[in-house]
Amino acid sequence: MIKKTDLHKAAVDGNTEQDETSVKTEVNSAPARLPSLSEFRARLDVPLFHRDQGLAQSAQLPRLLEIRRDQAVEPVVQEPVAPETVVPEPVVATSPVVDRPARSRPMLASIADLLSASEAVVVPVEPAPVAPPAEPVVPPTVDQSEVHALSTETDALLEVLAGFQVPAEDVVVETAIPEPIAPTPPSAATDAPWSTSNGSDEVRINSALGHRSVESELDRLAFLPDAEEVVGRVIVPVIAPTGQRHTVAVPVLSQHEMYNPRVIVTPVGKPKLFDAFDDNLPSKRKRRKGSFRRFFSLVVVLCVVGGGLYVAKYYLLAPKWSSADKVLVDEVETARQLEFDHAVDVNVVGADAYAERLGTYSLGVSSSNRESVTGELRALGLLSGEVDLHAIGLAAIVETPAFYDAGEEEIYVVADLPAATHRFAMHRALASALLDQEYGWGRRAAGGAPTVSRGTRALYEADALATATGLLTAADRASVLEQQPILSSTIGVIASPSPFGTAMAGHIGVALRAYVESVPLADRAAILRNATITDGQALDLRRLVSGAVEIPSVGSEGMLFWYHVLAGRLDPATAWNNALALQRDDVSVTKGASGYCVTAVLTVTASVFDNVTAAFLAWAGAAPAESLTTVTASNVDGLAQVSVNACDPGNSVQTNGGLTTLSMGGAPLRSEQYRQLVSTQPTLAKSQVACAVYAGDNVSSADERAVVDGVDGWAAPTAHPIPDPNRADCLQP
Question: Between the CA atoms of 709, 714, 716 and 720, what dihedral angle is there, to the nearest 10 degrees?
Fold first, then answer.
């Protein structure tokens, strides 16, 4: 291709003689022959018009505008490198335009001037690319007539191009600073150069470029503007290289962003203040939860679930008072000046079912201890034959047709009771339930020794009986007394096989009823709150009012139990007086080859040791031979003890004489005497009053007190002397 190049250093400054000699040698070495016009035309036209013959029509050629050097900007050749996924936009780089004063230089007016220029200008041709040269284009074979027509059209095109030339003096050419370029010696493979005859400007054309250089030059001229367009700063495009093509980066579908893997961003927690101090510290390994923590968590969960179930039962499934019971509840709450925390179930059952449940509750019999309890009662004469809980409860059903079961916190009442009897029985049972909700006596009674269970129950049952008796009008009292024999015959009450069991079922509250009535209602909380007493304290007021705390043994049966043991074979007075001397007892029941046997050690008051020993020896003498009953006594250093051993004779042996006994011994009598003395002499000390009522007079079967007194009251105390609080042994020291 034809390209403007820098002048040879020797032609520019002519400083060295060697350079001048080289130029002359180079000029004179080639024959001074100009190419003919036909040769130039053939080289120029053949490849062009062979491709596009339409350009041969001169009428259709545009009128080109000659570009001055100050308007043209030579671009800097840059090969853009695009990223793999981005298609670059074509960028045309231009070299900066240097503002220099224009120098007048004559331009060629015609091709003849170029050939006749006096100044030699050497235009070296760019070397061929490194890649193997492309095969020369072989002109197609055409008809001679077509070649003649093509030659005619080429002449016309040259004439038109000559008309486009403008005077050379109008063109201002910027002087270019040439850079020295080492001359390239011609090779034998190339054609001979051609140059002007005068040697002023020499043009070397490498024929190896062939027709490809002409095509590139014409392609470059195609980007020049027309004469009609507004002339401005024009960028002359660089001739595209004809060598090996570079692959242009094109977008690939698989590299599109939609095929990129999704980036999952891990949420970053809000930094904490202490994180700034331990960023560089290794994190401590979390300890695994131990078995104790898992067990503790399980316990907490179970407690929460249990609490939820309890609350649901307490508030959602809690029983409700019936309209009839609600009237009785209001009466009890008003009389006792307390309120129920929640309602309790009231179970109305038949007489037989009620008697069975009452006998079981009174003796504390269960499926696990039924045999041992039966063997113990028969060995000591408290039961003859099989234990019949139904018969024991049935004997107490007349005076106690309703009771409160502290273990189940429910009330049981016999069905179809007369109105007055039903009202009195319900008042008594409701008052016992009210006291249990207020003071919680049921839990304390169930968790202690038998003597504690009976003594605690006797105290609160006495308060409930006093409340129900206070609500009983004279008319209702008379009605209840009239209805009892009818109820007994209707139900079919029979003799109890165990007077002790029947007394526990219906009369246990009678022992302390009068004592509770002697305490004003406002002061009862002081003696009832957290009260846990033994049955010895319930029967002997001297021990109760002293305030001493008694701690019985686990197997202690208590004073009431041993009173009934003696009363089963001895008279009531002997049994009562010797039972009062009992201070402590320890009972154990063991099972042998012949059945259950009982071993008891009784601690008694030393002053009455001989009397107690004589009473138990008399009792053992009345026992059946099958029971193998023995009694031994010892009094060493003031510790008086009586040991009793007896075994179960079997259910076919009569173990007692069937005597009539006082259900609570002399306790109801002494309690009533205490109440009367406190009422007449309220200033006396409680201990002095209690001492006075336990005088030397004896009790008898006439001193039995019923649950409901007669219309005229209880007359038994009048048969005894009035207690003397001023006795010598009762005065305070």
Answer: 150
- Residues 57-66 have pLDDT tens digits of 444 445 555 5
Q: What is d(CA 519, CA 525) in angstroms, rounded to the nearest whole number? A: 10
189, 207, 235: which is the final residue of a domain?
A: 235
Is residue 403 helix, strand or coil?
Answer: strand
pLDDT digits (tens, 9 = 90+) for 651-693: 899 998 888 899 999 999 999 999 999 999 999 999 999 999 9
Q: Would you say residue 309 lies in a domain?
A: no
583 within some domain = yes
Q: Name the domain boundary from 206, 235, 264.
A: 235
**For residues 408 and 425, what is the distance between their CA atoms, to the nearest angstrom?**
18
Query: CA-to-CA distance for 92 and 80, rounded, in angstroms?
Result: 10
- Identify whether residues 525 and 663 lie together within a single domain: yes
Kindly state whether residues 225 and 373 are assigned to the same domain.
no
> Rounded to an integer, what distance in angstroms lies between the CA atom of residue 130 and that of residue 243?
8
Residue 5 has pLDDT above 70, yes or no: no
Average pLDDT, the chain: 77
Contact criterion met (CB below 8 Å) for 403 and 492 = no
Look up residue 358 and give its amino acid. Answer: L
Are residues 557 and 705 part of one domain? Answer: yes
Q: Is the pTM of this model over 0.85?
A: no
Q: Give the containing element (helix H, strand E) for 23.
A: helix 17-29
Overall domain count for the chain: 2
What is the distance of C-alpha 162 from the center of its chain?
99
Strand order in the sheet with 639-647: 582-591, 596-604, 639-647, 630-636
Name 231's Cβ contacts closer than 8 Å, sequence gap at least 6. Answer: 65, 71, 225
* Residue 390 domain-assigned (yes or no): yes
Confidence grade of residue 215 (pLDDT, cut at 50, 70, 90)? low
Identify whether residues 38 and 173 lie together within a single domain.
Answer: yes
Same domain, 218 and 342: no
The label of the residue with tokens 């038109």 reads: 160
Give me 586's structure tokens.
């320890």
Residue 728 lies in a domain: no
pLDDT of residue 523: 94
How far is residue 451's CA from residue 586's CA, in Å, rounded to a whole number? 11
pLDDT at residue 428, rounded to an integer: 98
Q: Retrieve residue 418's tokens.
A: 């007369």
Q: Name residue, tokens 């031979």.
A: 625
Q: What is the pLDDT of residue 66?
A: 55
- pLDDT > 90: what percent of the chain? 49
**Over the stretch 110-161, which tens digit does the pLDDT of each residue have?**
444 544 444 444 444 455 555 555 555 455 554 555 545 555 555 666 665 6
The answer on 343 and 194 residing in a single domain is: no
> What does the DSSP assignment read for 600-622?
EEEEE-GGGHHHHHHHHHHHHHT
Domain hosting 388: range is 323-719
Across the chain, which distance is largest between two alpha carbons, in Å?
182
